[in-house]
Amino acid sequence: MHANDATSAADTATLQTLIQSLPADFQWGSATSAAQIEGAAREDGKGESIWDRFCAQPGRIKDGSNIDVACDHYHRYPEDIQRMEWLGLEAYRFSFSWPRVRPQGRGAWNEAGFAFYDRLIDELLAAGIKPNATLYHWDLPQALDDSIGGLLSRDVAPLFAEYAAEVARRFGDRLATIATLNEPWCSATLGYETAQFAPGHTNRAEAYQVSHHLLMMHGAAMQAMRAVGSKAQLGIVLNHTPSFPADPLNEDDRRAARIDDGTNVRWYMDPVFRGQYPADIVEHLGADAPRIHEGDLALIQQPLDFLGINFYTRSVLNGRQQFVTPPGELGFTDMGWEIYPQALTQHLLRITREYTPPPIVITENGMANADRIVDGRVPDAARIAYLRGHLEALAQAVALGADVRGYFYWSLLDNFEWNSGYEKRFGLFHVDYATQERLAKDSAHWYRHLIEGFKAARSSAG
Ligand code: FCB
Q1: 265-275: buried (b, 16+ CB within 10 Å) or exposed (e) per residue?
Q2: How far apart are CA 449 and CA 433, in angstroms?
Q3: Single pTM value for the model
Q4: Does the Cβ of 239 fall within 6 Å of ligand 1?
């Protein structure tokens, strides 16, 4: 037993809060994505993705790294599943790589690629872990970018729907959930407006056109998966970073926060749940607002079985719509993101009130920390505090009426953090990239004990 003894008073109290507030069938999980962990970038017929291409462009990735090997999970998945079992995970969220299973994004399927996910899913099930899949976690087939302009083309939606239907047909009876998209805001804004993500464009009109096509991909995929009779629960995963005015009494600051909320939260929630884009943001965008065809919004507004929310931090804005450094009373993560768990409680309650969503799952939450191995351990007390704070905030939201069914810590392993490369470590397991050795951090021990305690309470109650 490590120094992070989960039976300390604080953690007993946390556990009690969770046991009292969360439903007995609450799912404990952890999340990853294909591009960030798999490696095997050119193996068994995998096609190139826009992230393979982006990494090859000088200056795009802070440490100059790429995803050729990443965590080598493609080869090491059996031992990684053993780690999930050791943690006591009930659910694991991973993503399919579209170019691995359909290298050109259209045309022939790659059976070797499907075989990998087939093995992964079977071994997860054998370990008693529910597989939760995401179809699009940012790794578009490069061939589609080359042939049709990728996400800039409306034609991407029916192609994505074909891929979704194929996954649902093959795996729909073994997957617990299938999410269409992960964080479309990031694909659109970071990929097409700020150039931080692949494919690295800097054009706001493109970003909003892409956001519309992503939402059409979501709608078309939902329809296609329902049509093949998939048994998996179907939904979408959105990143929500609640916006706060720097000075709540300043009207300009409040307006800036409303616009930021509109572009981040409402731009995606309103079409999915109400079949319309928020009017104030359409006006704010002016000529950069997307071109929409008749019927598009009806396609986007499909009934969902669950809503995935990824929550990390909040934003604070002033009247010039600029992000200001927040007070950070609980500190900042290694990404520079403020630790502000109470925003999670408020936000879950707001979403519940304003949208009447289906059951919510926290599909990502976690922190990057400057972790070091010290005497064979990774003493990441800051991550334990982050976890505790956010789980308590989540429990509070549930106690006040939010319907949250599960929690996935981001991430299982340290991995490729997009344009930050391998320098930012989010994992419960430390990864030594030279040897591919994994080491459970103190937070992994903490999470394991928490899950164990929760399960013990559940079985003694049941
Ligand atoms: C989210 C992404 C995930 C990971 C975390 C830190 O935006 O979905 O892949 O990079 O942030």
Answers
A1: bbbbbbbbbee
A2: 27
A3: 0.97
A4: yes
